[in-house]
Amino acid sequence: MVKHIMERFDSFLSYIEAISIFDAVHWNLPGCEIVEVEHASGKISASRILSPVNIPDKNKAAMDGYAVNHQDTVNASDHNAARLRLDGVNIAGGNAGLPLRSGQCREIYTGSIMPEGADAVIKVENCEQSDDYVYVYSPVLPGENIASTGEDITIGSPLLWEKAIVRPQNISAMNAAGIKSIMVYRNITIGIVNTGRELVTGQINNSTGALLRSFYQNSFINIIDGGIVDDSTDSIRNKILNLGSKCNIIIVTGGSSLGRKDLTTDAISEIGKMLFSGVAIKPGRTIALFDMDSTPVLSVSGLPVAALLSSLIFVNRYIYNAFGIELTEKAPAILDERIHNKTGFTTFQVMDTFEKGGELHARPLETTASGRISSLLQGNSFTSIDENLEGIEEGSRIMINVIGDIKWE
Amino acid sequence: MVKHIMERFDSFLSYIEAISIFDAVHWNLPGCEIVEVEHASGKISASRILSPVNIPDKNKAAMDGYAVNHQDTVNASDHNAARLRLDGVNIAGGNAGLPLRSGQCREIYTGSIMPEGADAVIKVENCEQSDDYVYVYSPVLPGENIASTGEDITIGSPLLWEKAIVRPQNISAMNAAGIKSIMVYRNITIGIVNTGRELVTGQINNSTGALLRSFYQNSFINIIDGGIVDDSTDSIRNKILNLGSKCNIIIVTGGSSLGRKDLTTDAISEIGKMLFSGVAIKPGRTIALFDMDSTPVLSVSGLPVAALLSSLIFVNRYIYNAFGIELTEKAPAILDERIHNKTGFTTFQVMDTFEKGGELHARPLETTASGRISSLLQGNSFTSIDENLEGIEEGSRIMINVIGDIKWE
């Protein structure tokens, strides 16, 4: 008979304590790199970018119509049209042309440079052209229908903020300002190692690995799949050691249950320092954290939902501490059914969130089983319940984290 | 002097009419392809997938502890421990082993197959082991701490729905069920052509193209950059014709202003049928729609915000009609400041959305200038105002579309 010794988790750290231990370490961060602006979408910016130019760079027409000097239209009315001689056209992409003389107007198109001497554009709808003359029936104001120099963006105003996700609008603004490349953080690299003989033998498929890999992969996170490792201290240690230099965060699944804790703990303890083991969270209370040369190594459950929700706490924290960015999308919702909680545990409850009467409502899923992937198929979100609470009352406003399709009316 | 004829937009279609004209066409849709499950993340599924197996496939331990028959623990108490002989261990990844006999128990680990004759797992915390005996101090219920066959997912239950975005939890569940590949829709391909001499000459940068390309590119949309085309009927027609066979949707920017409408209209009319030109929306009222062999060709403003918000109406509609999927993320919010509207126009208003007291609040940005990319830098969302409304009152509940970072408390 094989002799295993089952160690108990004698006590669990509170969620708050675990977070504060995590926060106290100066974890390694990804370095920076220069990328072309158009390849920066979804990356985390590493510096604030201020506009080197005014946009527009010159006064331009904001409408199709006729460039005029407003003084020539002061007395215009339905019965007393101002008659202006058409002196030509400023096409888009062309130059300002000759200065406009008094009593004249010039055909002009949205985006065209205004001629000197003109201070307004009269919309084509508000006048009539007959041969070389344009008849204007109402006065225009100075600056009317003009996009004046710097009106959109003035020199020195921010086009991108530091430690922000680069959005299409930032890319567009930087493009407009002629900025070709910027500094961004390299993608955060998360290594994922799945341990367990049942995976090696193929008795079960590696659905936990599949969940973590596709959940964490995004525009600013790369995944390195460390594959499946047998229940052996040497294999686990070597795999993690090998991933260490390439990863900012390592997640090891399946090594946190009582029966395997020693194995994984021994393996990682040889190459890193255990900071805690066992946190009062549900699901995933068996989570352990190691510091391997300033790389956080998280040893989590082999069950998919527990592995995801417990690792997410610390992956979120890593990203938030470093960049102030939230990994999962949040939304406020009204709780439609009381959630129970076991005091002393911070619980992550899978929820079904839907729109009702213009507001989001959320209902807890019945199952709290941490191994049930079906709860994530039926739900689309989760919320957290503080360890001091026995539950959250129906009708309370809660914050949900969105992980699926919210049902809209 | 070059002679241009400016045509007026004599009337604008209402938003509703434009939508119903768009909806009446059977637009081409992307075909389907088979992909490996793990490469399907973020794609649109083309069929419902039902589980071919039960998960778990056998009764398994849901806790680390000892497999027992509950009848052996019926009278157990603090003062009268049930004494069970330890007959071995079922490791994870191993088989069920010999059937468990009465009066015996077996060490077992989360995920291990239960031995025949055992119907519960007693947690390691709730008993004591001494040599070859385990002392149990309280009765267990039949089924306690067991994940029974099909408890998570039963044969025939859905792992993925048709026409849904494939999420990490779908991938995990399909992986668990041994499904290797699935049918998804090929990515929707959007071709983007930017016209205008001011782009060709480099007088201004193509910030509108940059905005559209990075906004629309996502896990289920590919972009083909048609580049910059001069203001020439031939060039525009040939470029669109060339893109036609590769694209599901084509967006042509810069050809919808009055001064260029004829040019673009002539170009596209040679290869497609105009369905409308001019819609009562702000910004982007100059938008025109063509049907080119069942491919929608949208001719939109050259100004970035107008080009984005007006094309988005119809790109959204295409995707929603075909798949029931929303392209932009939505959220309900409380309006913190009245929005004005010009009756007769459906207005898309850029908003700044933030959390206050556990709810989302939104404030309109001052500028409504359709050319101002700065509004998108300052805002993070937009809302729409119905053409029949003169505005939306402060305190109303509105729905916002999220396009940036919401400010959380």
Task: Provide a descriptive summary of the structure in words.
- The structure is a homodimer of 409-residue chains.
- Chain A is of the alpha+beta class and 409 residues long.
- Chain A has eight helices and 26 strands.
- The first copy, chain A, folds into four domains: 15-29 and 187-315, Molybdenum Cofactor Biosythetic Enzyme, Chain A (3-Layer(aba) Sandwich); 33-54 and 155-184, Molybdopterin biosynthesis moea protein, domain 2; 60-147, Molybdopterin biosynthesis moea protein, domain 3 (Molybdopterin biosynthesis moeA protein, domain 3, Beta Complex), CATH 2.170.190; 330-402, Beta-clip (Beta Barrel), CATH 2.40.340.10.
- In chain A, the strands form seven sheets. In chain A, strands 7-4-6-5-9-8 form a six-stranded mixed beta sheet, with no helix packed on it. A six-stranded mixed beta sheet of chain A has the order 14-13-15-19-18-16, sandwiched between helices.
- Residues 1-8 of chain A have low confidence and may be disordered.
- At the A-B interface, strand 5, helix 2, helix 3, helix 4 and helix 6 of A face strand 5, helix 2, helix 3, helix 4 and helix 6 of B.
